[in-house]
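Have a close read of this protein, sequence plus structure tokens, and explain what the tokens say about the fold. Thanks in advance:
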Amino acid sequence: MTVNEYLKQIDEVIKNGKYKDDWASLSNHKTPEWYYRDKFGIFIHWGIYSVPGFGNEWYSRNMYNSDHREFEHHRKTYGDQSVFGYKDFIPMFTAEKFDPQKWVELFKESGARFVMPVCEHHDGFAMYDTEFNRWNSVDMGPHRDVAGEIKAECEKQGLTFCASTHRAEHYFFMNTGRNCDSDVNDDAYRDFYGPAVTEEAYNRDNIFKTTEDTYAPGASKEWLEDWMVRTCELIDRYQPRTLYFDWWIHNHTFKPYLKKIAAYYYNRADEWGVETTIIFKHEAFPPTVATFDVERGALQDISPLPWQSDTAIGKCSWGYRFDNEYKSSRQIITDLIDIVSKNGMMLLNVGPKGDGSITDEETAILREIGAWLSKNGDGIYGTTFWKQFGEGKVNNEGGFFKDGDEKQYTAKDFRFTYKGGSIYAFQMRPDGKDVRIKAFAKRPVHDFIVEKITLLETGEEVEFERKENYMVIKKTDAFKSDKPICFKIKLA
């Protein structure tokens, strides 16, 4: 099918479907019940950039930018950019250890319920089978349909398949290669390196200021139509249950195309009989059309609408980096609890090596999270928020890119969730002593009644007493833990 034929198909699906390409129609879309119930998923950044494993997943851009250390590293390690360009990593990307069965087994063991590979990053290499990009993992590199194999394995093992596409930014992403002697300037590879537009607004680190500005110069009509068609092809071929976009789509030139993609996707989902949502950053979509995402961050209070935080086990890169630093499982677990207590979901990233193996560090952390969720997951899965997200002095600083350091929780910090007549109270940093929770102090007027309290870790019923200023839960030996503990507080 050609681009023009696909454009006609998009219009036809929208014409015949209940969702139209306007915000009023799209605002009737609901957050999927399965997504709200499942809370925890795995994000996967894996691609050509995993081969050098240096810097971060922006290696494809930074290797051409003399302002970044990747530039000199590349020249010393692989040669001049005009001789060995980013495209030359593709034959090295053989993925000989890629085993989707083992990947999904590990993700399932971690307690994750959905899986989202990045199907195409800003580098322009598609990790799926596509008619519109000859630079893809089926025809080159691994010679495998990476997204398709992950989807098939998810379906076998009962996890939900989702997808992410970061192609929008490829419009300008490789333009640093225009400023040096490199293969980006060779028209033979223009279909891989993209337009690599050279307007000053998008050169070097100007892109950060420019792409934050909704009203800054945007993409061309030709690019936007092509991007929309590729996105809709991904939707049709892989039927992902959520579709995630990275930044820049909030730019004003994208708005008409976002409406069409949303209408097309939601109408297709109607045909398939499944629940879906789009996940977005910044102000790309209005509320209730899609699901808002906070990258590497969180909110400070309960959101009235479900939201998502995408974060990573690795601190320095989304993709594989040979010297990456990793968060502890405790930090990720406390972040997960905090996010869920504020009506959110967590998407946790792993960055496999170029050969397709998942690092020992990430493997161990995923298993530790899974071990904790196997005992405490009743307070996470299927829950909603309570009247307050928690108590204590420690809270997140709201916004993006705030997840680097572990929060210094104490035994006085709690987070709450609710499900089926029970409140779940997580003590974020247990000290092995009697637990005191102010939110459950006994009040003489309009109080709720606590029937019993159990410790989820062991299932044992624990003694408690509600006093005027707090409720005390009597300690047992099981209260000693280096990770949060959870009390199921059943209401009478």
User: Anything to note?
Assistant: The first strand starts at residue 40 and ends at 44.
